[in-house]
Amino acid sequence: MFPHQALDDVYQFYERYSTSAPSTALVKRYQEMKKLYAEIEAVEDDVEQWLAKVMEVDDKQFIIHNIEYRLGGNLLDLKLWKLYLEYLRKNDPKEMLQAYSKYCRFFIDDKKMLEEYKHATAKFGPINVSWKNPFDFEKLESQNIEPIFDLFDEGYKPTEKISFIRKQPCRYFFNTENNYIRQNFSLPNTVMHYIHQTANHVALQKLYKSCKYFFAKKSTPICYKFDYTCSPRMQRIAFREQSIDIRMDQNGIFKLQNLFIANSLSFYYLPEIKYQTLSTIIQSFERCEPKHLTIENQNLTFAEFKFLAGHGNIETLHFKNVRITNDNREIVPLEDIVVKLPKVYELCLDNILCTSQTSSSLLQIKFKNKFKELKLHNVNDKLELNDFYTFLWKNVNRKTCCTFSCSEEASEEFILEFQRQYCCLLDFHFDDSENGKPMINIFSAAEYELFALN
Q1: pLDDT in tens, 157-206
Q2: Where are the alpha helices (DSSP H) in 172-218?
Q3: Structural domain includes residue 122
Q4: N or C: which end of the chain has fewer CB within 10 A?
Q5: Domain-embedded: residue 25
Q6: Cα(255)–Cα(270) distance, rounded to whole angstroms?
Q7: Could you give the CA distance from residue 150 to residue 159 in angstroms, rounded to a whole number?
Q8: CA dist., res. 226 & res. 205, Å (int)
Q9: CA-wise closest residue to 301 among 281, 326, 331
Q10: Distance separating alpha carbons of residues 291 and 144, to the nearest angstrom
């Protein structure tokens, strides 16, 4: 508030509540400030003239408030910053050091000003700051003057009594039962409920950071990367930021609940242990929307597969020794699996089942990416090859690596035709050898077994 505006308020007070006229000194001050306010407005575009007029008020608090208000509107005004520092140097050196600390953290490349700040601190300091990253010549506001020694430093030789600093334990904890407070938002509760229930992991994390109310309403910890490895005789859970690395054997007890798997899920299990651990762990997931999915040596129901991949955002999927079965415990056809993966560009599946409709169904799927890697194992001879190679031509490029192995039941005629049409695909659609061709390998069951061993 400018001085003449404050005096206007005083005038209104006198008009309403006073029976006597304002003093001559007050009237004179009001007229001077009103005139000065007009002069300040007239030179507002020239920062030097503006500051000179503001300083004519001869009120330190008024001057500092107006300078900082103007800086808040444009923090890149270097001229005003330096004029402000110069004013404080003459009128309040301690406050000048605080302004220097702010300037040097906003303009981190201005080494010259940092040196000026250091010299000013040596002359007018010391300075206590609240920043978490103090310069070597600054001190934290909460810094304890008692010496702290590293008892694990081999070169440490005590020369005086050691002081042990005991941190005060946190007195208040967020508790959904005792100190949870219902929040009121400008949007209707139904809208806020919809946002909370449908938010992806990025939006949900921002909601959690903005207010603990959202986490209290629905406690769903977000896990960016979930890695589980079967490790005999080991029980360990390691947390790294928002990632979890688990090493357990088949007898381990998984106690985490309501996880939101956001980016990556990997599950490695020993083939000799017939234990459906993943199926039990899935029950602990509230939501599962990974982009990268890797599973080894597990059996999944189709419902479990849809929970893991049915959101449609899978980009890489690597299954090894994984069977996906329906309610009748029959292997789910390949097309029913792939249709859930429109964004996939790395796809590795074994124990697949091809039907007479598989190739035509694959042709109908609109993939958003070309395959970088495609591996299908145990392909049976019901696969219609003409449509399948049309599917490949549409969805591979010159850098794609494809590996197909046929099942033991596949006939020799089917395997030979599979390999012949692969040669036709390369000759007709990728005949420009200078630009490269996709790498396609086709094996019988026996050949692939030898290939995998090597």
Answers
A1: 444 444 445 555 555 555 555 666 666 777 777 777 777 777 777 777 77
A2: 189-198, 201-210, 212-217
A3: yes
A4: C
A5: yes
A6: 21
A7: 13
A8: 17
A9: 326
A10: 48
The two structure tokens encoding residue 282: 């899935």
* Cα(392)–Cα(425) distance, integer angstroms: 9
Q: Which two tokens stand for residue 317?
A: 């999927």
Q: Residue written as tokens 């789910």?
A: 332
DSSP letter for 200, please: -
Q: DSSP string covering 211-264, please?
A: -HHHHHHS---EEEEEEEEE-TT--EEEEETTEEEEEE-TT------SEEEEEE
Asked whether residue 348 is domain-assigned, the answer is no
**At CB < 8 A and 24+ separation, what contacts does 105-108 make?**
105/131, 106/75, 107/78
Measured in whole angstroms, how far is the alpha carbon of residue 31 from the centre of its chain? Answer: 58
> pLDDT digit string (tens) for 206-264?
777 777 777 777 777 888 899 988 877 777 788 888 888 888 766 666 777 888 898 89
Q: How far apart are the first and last CA of the chain?
A: 82
27: its two tokens: 């009237």
Provide the domain limits for residue 132.
3-140
- Residue with token string 């208000």: 69
C-beta separation of 250 from 230 below 8 A: yes
- Beta-carbon contacts of 333 under 8 Å, excluding residues fewer than 6 positions away, are 353, 354, 355, 357, 358
Q: 277 and 253 in contact (C-beta within 8 Å)?
A: no
Asked if 9 and 1 count as a contact pair (C-beta separation under 8 A), the reply is no
Token pair belonging to 372 = 């970088």
Q: In one letter, which amino acid is 283?
A: Q
CB under 8 Å, gap of 24 or more: what pairs does 297-300 form?
A: 297/268, 297/269, 297/270, 297/271, 297/321, 297/322, 298/267, 298/269, 298/322, 299/323, 299/324, 299/325, 300/324, 300/325
pLDDT, tens digit, for every residue of 109-139?
788 888 888 888 888 877 877 777 777 777 7
Cβ atoms of 70 and 57 within 8 Å: the answer is no
Q: Is 405 left (phi over 0), alpha (psi -120 to 50) or beta?
A: beta
Q: Report the sign of the C-alpha dihedral through residues 124, 130, 131, 132, in that order.
A: positive
Which residues are CB-neighbours of 71 under 8 A, at least 6 positions away?
77, 80, 81, 84
In a domain, 97, yes or no: yes
CATH number for the domain spanning 71: value is 1.25.40
Domain count, the chain: 1
